[in-house]
Amino acid sequence: DGVDNRNLEDAIYAFGFGNRCSYVKPFGAGHINETYAVYMPGEDGDELSYVLQRVNSNVFKDPAGVMENIFGVTEYLRNEIRQEGGNPDRETLSYIKTKSGCNYFEDGEGEPWRCYNFIPDSVCYQLVEEPEQFYQSGSSFGHFLKQLGNYPASRLHETIPDFHNTVKRFEAFQVALKRDLKNRAVTCKPEIRFVLDREADCGVLVTKQEDGRLPLRVTHNDTKLNNILFDAKTGKGLCIIDLDTIMPGLAANDFGDSIRFGAATAAEDERNLDLMHFDLNLYELYVKGYLEETKDVLTEEEIKSLPWGARLMTLECGIRFLTDYLQGDTYFKTEYPEHNLVRARTQFRLVDEMEQNFDKMQEIIQKYTK
Ligand code: ADP
Ligand code: MG
Ligand code: MG
Question: 131-367: what fold?
Answer without folding.
Answer: Aminoglycoside 3'-phosphotransferase; Chain: A, domain 2 (3.90.1200)
